[in-house]
Design a protein that fits this description.
Number of strands: 6
Helix content: 10-25%
Distance between the termini: 77 Å
Largest sheet: 2 strands, antiparallel
Shape: flat
Strand order of the largest sheet: 1-6
Radius of gyration: 48 Å
Order of helices and strands: HHHEEEEEE
Number of helices: 3
Length: 169
């Protein structure tokens, strides 16, 4: 914890003292201690060749090339023995017969199939007639029609709930 505070203070002092155009002056600071890197992660640093970032994992050889394939060291025991003088490594065990005794399965149907009761809704239409004043106008034959009252029918309605009792299927 103490190393981190010192590193932060050092960065603040250096950042405050560097002028605005000092990005290309070559000032470089490495503020990493071994305690800053979480366990299991490799430290990632720039290399000296052009200060390009290089993956540190690339410096290690392929782990698959370090160890021989164990499948090639031992022969497959399932294959027949190539040398009949040598005893076979695969010894078949006797197969124990499996006896399966089936049990009877009884299916029981329910006594009665019942659909429970529920609420349903039905549309109840309503209508009424009212006299409406129609002002005078010229019809399609260019004849004047005087203003008058004429009956108009209006429709409306509502949903009426009703109970559907339970019933057998």
């Amino acid at each position: 914890m103490d190393v981190k505070i010192v590193a932060i203070l050092l960065l603040v002092v250096l950042a405050a003292g560097i002028p605005a155009g000092a990005g290309a002056t070559g000032v470089k600071i490495t503020v990493n201690s071994s305690s800053d890197i979480p366990q299991g992660q490799l430290q990632q640093t720039a290399t000296s060749r052009g200060d390009l970032y290089r993956d540190p994992r690339q410096q290690y050889p392929d782990p698959r090339l370090q160890y021989p394939d164990p499948r090639l060291q031992y022969p497959d025991p399932r294959l027949p023995n190539p040398d009949p003088r040598q005893p076979s490594r695969f010894v078949p065990r006797p197969v124990t017969p499996v006896i399966v005794i089936t049990q009877p399965v009884y299916l029981v149907a329910p006594q009665a199939c019942v659909v429970p009761g529920y609420w349903a809704y039905t549309w109840v239409p309503q209508s009424y007639v009212s006299n409406v004043w129609v002002p005078g106008y010229y019809n399609y034959d260019a004849l004047w029609i005087d203003g008058h009252y004429e009956p108009r029918a209006y429709t409306w309605g509502y949903y009426q709930p009703y109970w559907v009792p339970e019933r057998a299927c």
